[in-house]
Specification:
Helices cover 83% and strands 0% of the residues. It is built from two helices and no strands. Helix 1 packs across helix 2. The protein is flat, with a radius of gyration of 34 Å.
């Protein structure tokens, strides 16, 4: 006797976040529109604000993409120089210890 269990398919959730974002965007646009009717320079202030946000976002992505690999390379080079300096100091200390041991004996 074969018993088949019902398949568990996830129920689709309503897009509440999308609906909320759309409602906020609609209210914001309505407020901007009403403020622009009362005070026409308000629209210019909003456009300048949007331009500043876009400028800062572009700065963030450009500098983040270009500078992060550069900083990583510099850090690797610094670590490599430090390791080479440590190895040279250790070799010099070994050589000085070896030379000092032969002078005393």
């Amino acid at each position: 006797m074969n018993v088949r269990l019902p398949s568990r398919q996830p129920q689709q959730q309503p897009p509440t976040v999308l609906i909320g974002l759309m409602a906020i965007a609609a209210c914001s646009l309505a407020f901007i529109g009403m403020a622009a009717v009362v005070m026409p320079q308000f629209l210019l202030m909003v456009l300048v604000g949007i331009g500043m946000v876009l400028f800062f976002a572009a700065q963030y992505f450009v500098w983040g993409r270009w500078l992060y690999p550069l900083v990583l390379r510099q850090e690797q080079q610094r670590e490599q120089r430090q390791q080479e300096a440590d190895a040279a100091a250790e070799a010099a200390a070994r050589q000085a210890t070896g030379t000092a041991g032969t002078d005393q004996g």
